[in-house]
Design goal:
The complex is a heterodimer of chains A (531) and B (347). In chain A, helix 1 crosses helix 15 and helix 2 crosses helix 12. Chain A folds into two domains: 242 residues, MetI-like (MetI-like fold); 270 residues, MetI-like fold (Orthogonal Bundle). Chain A is 79% helix and 0% strand. Helices cover 42% and strands 16% of the residues of chain B. In chain B, strands 1, 2, 3, 4, 5, 6, 7, 8, 9 and 10 form a ten-stranded mixed beta sheet that branches. The chains are: A mainly alpha (531), B alpha/beta (347).
């Protein structure tokens, strides 16, 4: 077991990275006009019927998106992880790849698809109100669809991992009893994977609730958009008080999940990967392939096609890319910084989670997942409050450091996840043997832990880099003068009608994210099969 | 393998050092920080040209569709109240938020010699800000859907049952639509202004995200008419979209009071860290050369100084009957009516 002192240090670092911006946000929400503490911001905001109406809208679209993501993502994850689907390894990676595609480019692409020329486009435009704004109940459909297909990769990610941990003995026993594939799925595999499914659905719910770009772009104002509107109108305290609502809800749901499923999660994190015999699809192979193909078309094909068709010719693309080299530089610097920061903390925190037990592990897992649970606007506002102080601003807030910090905190859960996988690949008896031989902590780290964890650590760094390239919601709030990332530049130009510029920038971002994220996922997958 | 680990560690330290040095290295160079509300596609070339000519590094912060001009203003007010001031120049694409900063005492008076030929109606009497390169509030219509005989002439057309559910305005909570709403309250009085907005709502006016969204809805034919700005319509006309613009209120009847003309405004921030560079930038932005450049760009801003040619798509200032407003009164009215508009214009 890791020493208590080291565990305490890294737990404190993790807590600082996650809780400091949230504490700053809460302090801002409680700030009175004279600088004292008051609840008046909460009573003013949550005493208004409008707030509850916007909150209810946010809950409806988030729950709808989560439900849609489960309906689409769970069968996909099962097919890719637990059956003999042709090319299932590639399908699994394709199913997760959508994580690196920013949600605002997804809505751009779907909007480009909607129009009046065919019945499909008319349905998208009228039936789902993808153009023209929300029109009664139908307007919610478009928002739920886009949110669902944007975030469904999280359901695939967690569900696939959970399906792979199904108890093989129970499956074999059911088969021996004559159970069909569907019966095995419904009575053994799915119940066993509910922990992962619930985690994925929860992630989609939290991300959809905190997303202010997609609903607003489609004409539906939700609570997250109102938080940003209040902040930009100089009512920062009220904005933070409003953000506290969805934040507390998601944290409470997550805490409930941790209590209800924490034990299963702990077992899953410490379980050895067994080899699960894939379920035979037989005559259902090709329908399954068709379903997976449609899934990938909706989550990857449409965004990519929408962007590529908007680029214009190669000469136009190159001209537009040349025009944004400054923003590209800022993006690369910020993303590299975020990746390294998150990688270091993630490796240490992941190692701590893998090597400890009980309350410390539970607290670390809870803290590590918080940044993705908290609405992006709340996280951004909290970080802004932390960095907007005289000395901190000069060190970190006035340059790319602010952007790196924002993205590092936002995507810390991915780095911690990679860190856990990395730590699990180091046999504890090796460390113990080194210590018995008289090696100090630095020697153990440099000669045993780091060499063995380097591939997974690099994978985590690459994944955080991929996600940071296109991060917008936190970056939009933290962007200092003179530093504009590609994502902020793209959002800036979205309404100017410069389709070719916007599409070219989006393609560049996607290429960066796909290359680095794909490499990271490939390393993790390779590492996973080797262990 | 161990060597690779040391290399990886060294690389990580180098990356972090490089990232955070981007903050620390700023103090040594000549620079000016500008918060700019005009779309970066139009303003950034101007700022880069200034940078090229003077060697002074320009660090711009632009607004976005998410944060709008009011977001920049909120940051500036926060800097002014709590310190330190980190922005040197505020380039606004309208006037109300600039007046809001003046009322808060956040602006430094500076009368630029480059603005000597700008009419007094576009300057702050106390020298805190100067206007240039304006836009006008206009009605955009779809040429394929709105025959000439039915083309609206005043903003009351948006309340006409003929356009029920087919007229659009931007949310009057920010930007020029908020300025326009406040101006209507100021010029018409509260009673008539509320009648107007209530009639709009009763006529199922579509509330769009912004002026550009209004234009896009009319271009797409989802709306037939809309209230927006000249620059939004000019860029659509320039692209060949089937829309036209009408300057409302230009007739001879008593209801035709003219339209609102909203200039860009530029001001120096009080207590800014680079005052000399700030004044140089203001001088450049207010030059006739820049005003002509903004007139010729796709947004076709309207020159306010005589003798500067327009872009051709929008009418010249002399050809527009502008409604006479006192921007100080409009800004004061904006704060009064903000809550009324926020409660009634939700989507």
């Amino acid at each position: 077991m890791q020493s208590r002192a080291r565990s305490a240090i890294w737990l404190a670092v993790l807590a600082g990275a996650v809780l400091l911006p949230l504490a700053a946000a809460m302090r801002g929400a409680l700030a009175g006009p004279d600088g004292g503490i008051t609840l008046s911001n909460f009573t003013e905001v949550w005493g208004a019927a409008l707030t509850w109406k916007l909150f209810a809208r946010g809950l409806v679209v988030s729950a709808g998106a989560a439900a849609l993501a489960v309906v689409l993502g769970v069968p996909y994850a099962y097919l890719a992880a637990s059956t003999d689907l042709p090319g299932r390894g590639a399908w699994e990676v394709l199913g997760i790849c959508g994580i690196v595609i920013p949600s605002y480019t997804v809505v751009m692409s779907w909007l480009n698809l909607s129009g009046d020329s065919t019945w499909v486009r008319t349905f998208l435009a009228e039936g789902m109100a993808l153009r023209g704004g929300a029109a009664g109940a139908m307007g919610y459909l478009g928002v739920i669809w886009i949110l669902g297909v944007s975030y469904v990769p999280f359901v695939v990610l967690f569900s696939a991992a959970a399906f792979r941990l199904t108890d093989q003995e129970a499956v074999e026993a059911a088969r021996a009893d004559g159970a069909s594939g569907l019966q095995v799925f419904a009575r053994i595999r799915l119940p066993a994977a509910m922990t992962g499914v619930a985690l994925g659905a929860g992630a989609v719910f939290a991300l959809a609730l905190g997303d202010y770009e997609i609903p607003a772009a489609l004409g539906l104002e939700t609570i997250s958009w109102e938080v940003l509107t209040l902040w930009t109108n100089g009512r920062g305290a009220q904005a933070l008080a409003m953000a506290a609502g969805p934040t507390l809800l998601v944290v409470a749901l997550y805490a409930l999940y941790a209590v209800a499923c924490g034990r299963s999660m702990a077992l899953a994190l410490s379980a050895e990967r067994g080899r699960v015999r894939p379920e035979r699809l037989g005559g259902w192979s090709w329908p399954a392939v068709c379903f997976c193909g449609l899934f990938v078309a909706a989550t990857l094909g449409v965004p990519l096609t929408g962007l590529l068709t908007g680029v214009g010719g190669p000469a136009t693309f190159l001209r537009n890319v040349a025009a944004v080299t400054g923003h590209l530089g800022t993006t690369l610097v910020a993303a590299c910084g975020a990746a390294v920061l998150a990688g270091v903390v993630g490796l240490a925190a992941g190692g701590m989670i893998a090597r400890t037990s009980g309350l410390a592990r539970g607290a670390a897992v809870f803290l590590a997942a918080m940044p993705m649970a908290v609405p992006a606007a709340a996280l951004g506002l909290g970080l802004h409050a932390v960095l907007n102080r005289p000395l901190l601003y000069e060190i970190a807030g006035s340059g790319a450091g602010a952007l790196a910090l924002g993205a590092a905190v936002r995507f810390l859960p991915f780095a911690v996840f990679a860190g856990v996988m990395a730590a699990r690949s180091v046999p504890t008896d090796l460390e113990d043997a080194a210590r018995v031989d008289g090696a100090g902590p630095v020697a153990v780290a440099m000669r045993i832990c780091l060499p063995l964890t380097l591939p997974a650590t690099i994978a985590g760094v690459l994944i955080v880099f991929a996600l940071s390239v296109s991060e917008l919601q936190v970056t939009n709030i933290l962007c200092p003068p003179g530093y504009q990332t590609l994502a902020v530049h793209l959002a800036d130009r979205l309404h100017t009608g410069e389709v070719e510029r916007v599409s070219s920038v989006a393609v560049v971002m996607l290429c960066l994210a796909a290359a680095s994220g794909g490499a990271g996922l490939a390393i993790l997958r390779w590492k996973g099969y080797r262990s | 393998m161990q060597r690779r680990c040391w290399l990886a560690l060294a690389g990580a330290v180098a990356v972090l050092a490089g990232v955070f040095l981007t903050s620390c290295g700023r103090g040594s160079r000549r620079e000016v920080v500008v918060f700019c509300a005009l779309d970066s596609v139009y303003s950034e070339p101007v700022l880069r040209e200034f940078e090229r000519r003077t060697g002074i590094a320009v660090s711009p912060k632009f607004d976005s569709e998410a944060t709008k001009t009011v977001g920049l203003t909120s940051i500036l007010l926060d800097q002014h109240r709590r310190g330190p001031v980190r922005c040197d120049v505020f380039w606004n694409n309208e006037v109300m938020q600039t007046v809001r900063l003046k009322r808060a005492g956040a602006l430094e008076p500076y009368v630029s010699p480059a603005a000597a030929d700008i009419p007094g109606a576009f300057k702050d009497p106390d020298g805190h800000w100067t206007g240039f390169a304006a836009r006008a509030r206009v009605i955009v219509y779809n040429k394929n859907l709105v025959p000439e005989r039915l083309r609206p002439r005043t903003i009351w057309a948006l309340a006409d049952p003929r356009w029920k559910g087919k007229a659009a305005i931007a949310r009057p909570l920010a930007g020029t639509t908020a300025t326009h709403a406040a101006a209507l309250f100021s010029v018409w009085g509260e009673k008539q202004a509320k009648v107007y907005f209530e009639q709009l709502l009763a006529n199922d006016v579509h509330i769009a995200l912004g002026n550009a969204n209004v234009r896009d809805l009319v271009v797409a034919g989802r709306m037939h008419i809309g209230l927006t700005d000249t620059d939004d319509v000019a860029s659509a006309i320039g692209r060949g979209d089937p829309v036209g613009m009408i300057i409302p209120g230009q007739g001879d009847s008593p209801a035709d009071m003219g339209t609102l003309v909203i200039p860009n405004t530029v001001a120096v921030m009080k207590g800014c860290p680079h005052p000399e560079e700030a004044r140089k930038l203001v001088d450049y932005i207010l030059s006739a050369e820049v005003e002509e450049r903004l007139a010729r760009c796709p947004s076709a801003q309207i020159p306010v100084r005589p003798g500067v040619p327009g872009g051709g798509v929008t009418p010249a200032l002399d050809d527009i009957r502008a409604v006479a407003v006192d921007y100080e009164k409009v800004a004061a009215k904006a704060e009064e009516v903000a809550e009324y508009l926020r409660q009634n214009f939700r989507r």
